[in-house]
């Protein structure tokens, strides 16, 4: 188990107990488990859920059944005591890596890791240069930004916390357009790297302080510095991110990784 990013906190023991219970009840081996939501992004409220995500593998024979393709490749548990826990089968995770799925890459770069089988994260990260598509990921982030802006930020008042769920994907697109590689999870890193000091940074700082210091933010008055920047970015991106398409890579490395972890 990796020690470098393991989370230590009041709910860690409960999370680890739930993960062990899942292994036992589902007859699987959890290869990696991390935090994936606002707590990993760095703008959680005191009452935010713990968004625990994991990658697991069955015993080899489970995949060799003639009905294997019909079997569920996700494990989900109801939210209980602020713990939102679910995971993907290894084969599903690798299929999504082939499609350059942004949430998967975010899991692998989470600053909060609960469990890791030795060598697994290293193997997955070694695949990133081959299968990470900046253009594909940028389109994913643009879809997120447009959806949250349309649903929550068009009128006045607005759903205040949703500013963060539009700002983060828009900054992620800028990160990708600048050629910096995989988008980091911590929101403060995006802000510090991509935005100069000024009214926009100040408004973001005030919003973060409000969200981190109280219960989940409800509706409130429109924040012009945030709304105006978001509108300008969405207008700039009307025709899509400024990134070129890339050819589909060979899936052979993913097949090899799948077989290696079935046999380990």
What does this structure look like?
There is one protein chain. With 264 residues, this protein is α+β, with helices and mostly antiparallel strands. It is 49% helix and 12% strand. The chain has helices spanning 12-26, 38-41, 90-98, 102-108, 120-131, 134-152, 162-177, 187-194, 199-212, 224-236, 252-263, and strands spanning 29-35, 50-57, 74-76, 83-89, 113-116, 158-159, 219-220. Strands 3-4-2-1-5 form a 5-stranded mixed β-sheet. Strand 3 and strand 4 form a beta hairpin. Helix 6 (134-152) packs antiparallel against helix 7 (162-177). The protein starts with 11 loop residues before the first helix and ends with a helix. The mean pLDDT is 93.
Describe the structure concisely for a colleague.
The chain is α+β, with helices and mostly antiparallel strands and 264 residues long. It contains eleven helices and seven strands. Helix 3 runs antiparallel to helix 11 (252-263) and helix 5 runs antiparallel to helix 11 (252-263).
Output the structural class. alpha+beta
Task: Quickly count the helices.
Answer: 11
Low-confidence stretches: none
| N-end to C-end Cα span | 15 Å
Helix and strand succession? HEHEEEHHEHHEHHHEHH
Helix content: 40-55%
Give a quick account of the main beta sheet: strands, pairing sense, barrel closure.
5 strands, mixed
Given this structure, which CATH class of the largest domain is correct?
Alpha Beta
Mean pLDDT: 93
Strand order of the largest sheet: 3-4-2-1-5
Question: How much beta, percentage-wise?
Answer: 5-15%
CATH topology of the largest domain: Beta Polymerase, domain 2
Our Rg estimate from Cα atoms comes to 20 Å
Q: Name the CATH superfamily assignment of the largest domain.
A: Beta Polymerase, domain 2
Shape: globular
- DSSP strand tally: 7
CATH architecture of the largest domain: 2-Layer Sandwich
Total domains, how many? 2
């Amino acid at each position: 188990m990796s020690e470098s990013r393991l989370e230590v906190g009041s709910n860690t023991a409960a999370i680890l107990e739930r993960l062990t219970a899942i292994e036992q009840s589902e007859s699987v081996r959890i290869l990696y488990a991390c935090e994936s939501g606002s707590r990993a992004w760095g703008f959680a409220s005191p009452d935010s859920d713990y968004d625990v995500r994991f990658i697991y593998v069955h015993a080899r024979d489970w995949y060799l059944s003639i009905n294997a393709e019909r079997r569920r490749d996700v494990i989900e548990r109801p939210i209980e005591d602020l713990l939102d826990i679910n995971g993907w089968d290894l084969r599903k995770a690798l299929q999504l890596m082939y499609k350059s799925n942004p949430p998967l890459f975010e899991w692998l770069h989470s600053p909060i890791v609960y469990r890791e089988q030795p060598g697994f994260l290293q193997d997955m990260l070694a695949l990133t240069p081959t299968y990470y598509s900046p253009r594909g990921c940028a389109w994913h982030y643009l879809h997120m930004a447009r959806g949250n802006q349309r649903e929550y930020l068009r009128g006045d008042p607005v759903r205040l916390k949703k500013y963060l769920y539009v700002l983060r994907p828009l900054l992620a697109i800028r990160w990708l357009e600048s050629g910096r590689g995989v988008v980091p999870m911590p929101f403060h890193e995006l802000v510090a790297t991509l935005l100069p000091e000024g009214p926009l940074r100040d408004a973001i700082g005030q919003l973060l302080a409000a969200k981190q210091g109280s219960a989940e933010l409800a509706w409130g008055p429109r924040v012009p510095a945030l709304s105006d920047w978001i509108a300008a970015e969405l207008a700039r991106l009307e025709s899509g991110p400024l990134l070129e398409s890339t050819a589909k890579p060979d899936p052979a490395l993913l097949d090899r990784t799948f077989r290696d972890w079935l046999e380990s």
